[in-house]
Amino acid sequence: MDALIRGLAIAGGFVLLLAASRKVGHPHALADTLGRVGVPTPWASVVAAWVPYLEVAAAMVIVVAVGHPIGAIPAMVVGVALIGVGSRGLGSASPIPCSCFSAHSSHPLGWRQLGMGAGFLIVGLLGPSTVEQTSAVGSVASLAGAAMGVAVFNVASLLRPLLLARDERLATGG
């Protein structure tokens, strides 16, 4: 059980860091989604501007403090928030676009958020009772690994259009 909870915490940290890295320069998509969920317009913009930074802070605490009650708090808050927006998406008369990773995803709010929310709740609820405390070096190494994964993923995402354009240019003889 220790490995499962620790793995969920690291995966959750990765997802939060990736989401934050994608939203930080483009809060307008999140503000639009928050407005569709029912957050009043002036508040949606303020919340959207701060969410990426809160996601980074939550990722750090969840990964570094997995198994400690302090790590459980942000995990449960993120879990409840994701379940709330997922439920709102499923209950909406028309699909609400997800802006979890900045640009609207092709999937509306719904089952994915419920699943991620459940994962965060498991980490928050079971972590303090089942995970042995890790040394600070091990916790920081886990967080650094998640951050490196996000960096590689983002670089690959940036290079993909360039490589596709090069392949198209080569295919047309240009």
Account of the protein in words:
It contains 6 helices and no strands. The protein has one domain (2-171). The chain has 174 residues and is mainly α.
SSE pattern, N- to C-terminal: HHHHHH
Largest sheet: none
How would you describe the shape? globular
Radius of gyration: 18 Å
Number of continuous helical runs: 6
pLDDT averaged over residues: 80
Number of domains: 1
Q: Work out the strand percent.
A: under 5%
Given as residue ranges, the uncertain stretches (5+ residues, pLDDT < 50) are: none
Strand tally is: 0
Helix-residue proportion: over 70%
Structural category: mainly alpha
End-to-end distance: 56 Å
Produce a short descriptive summary.
Helices cover 78% and strands 0% of the residues. The protein has six helices and no strands.
Offer a few descriptive terms.
174 residues, mainly alpha, 6 helices, globular
